[in-house]
Write a structure and sequence with these properties.
mainly beta, seven-stranded antiparallel beta sheet, five-stranded antiparallel beta sheet, 2 helices, globular
Length: 385
Amino acid sequence: MRNRRLLSALAGPLIGAFVLAGCSQAPDDFDRSPEQVTTDLDAVDGSDLQLPLVVEPLELVEPGWDLPPAHLGDVFLSASTDDETLDFSAVDVHGSTLWQAKRPSGCTGFTVSTDADGSALAVLTDSDSSTDCDEDVTASAYDLETGKQKWGPVDVPGPMRGPGTVFAAEDADPTEALALDPATGEAVQDGPSDVRRLGEYKGTILSIDGQTLRATGEQSWELSLSDNGWDADELRAVPGADPGEDVIALDAGDGVGPVLDRETGELLDDDARGVAPDANTGAVVTLSTQGLTVIDDTGKNELPVSVPESVELEAAVGGLIYLREGGTLRVHNAATGSLARGYPADGSGTVAVPVTFTTEGLGTLRAGDRTLLATDRVVEDSEDS
């Protein structure tokens, strides 16, 4: 099984459905074109935080993001907000801001994907007439690392609904959603008019056509809905799922559903209510009615861990599983299921929870309402010790 990056289906609001108050004419006094900046962010003093041991020796930076970040490879993307504008920024694992771009405040829809060569793309939405991005909506793609425009602007029927490059007007019929090929920006026409497109995942378009769940594009496969006991009207993409990952999480009803391998369509779990691929180990952790299961090249390992319905799967990083129950966070060993030491024993302050990580163990953490990025820069005290 390929290395997989973190997908937290239950962490944060749906990218593209984040709603900001107010409805007014879109500002016309800023340039939408990404500006290359290449500036190093200052290190953050983490003394007021409880930091996971997996990032303890690493310098943290704070990009100032308000929206849940997305990433592919070594570059992370998100935006800060104010009353009229969004300020997008792409930041790499070295803690350097690579480029920035402005959008109207309601155009919160953005995603990451890949072009035909596998290069990472950022897709942003825009509107010339509405700060809510509900009229005259367009989409454009940029190289995730350089900010260079690849295609667009392309007219789309409404905000980004996702996962990935799927767009629809509010209250539109599910069959009216438009999927764009992230490599070209062209509309995907892969079946009759009643096809319902669920999401786009790194160039793979997932759709429901009659009683068939079909993947087309970068990867192609089919699954029978009836054979798997899935209802065509109920099955949908998990809100908040990260389309940059190599697994696909679906909701078959009541927040529970299948987890599929993006490349092959292999059914990894059939009733998951949480999923978190561990980028470091290549394993996929699922939380289902049976409990916690770790799926890797050796098969499936059901862990002896009690997980009542109140428990949520937060993350899986470096062979550790982070679970939340109410205001309590606990960490388990992914190999044995036993409780593990995920934080310093004498820590105090706001608990920073891992969110999205790379295969090298670098990535974002959520500490209250702050988003921090653990970089490849080593804290000086750790380097000297």
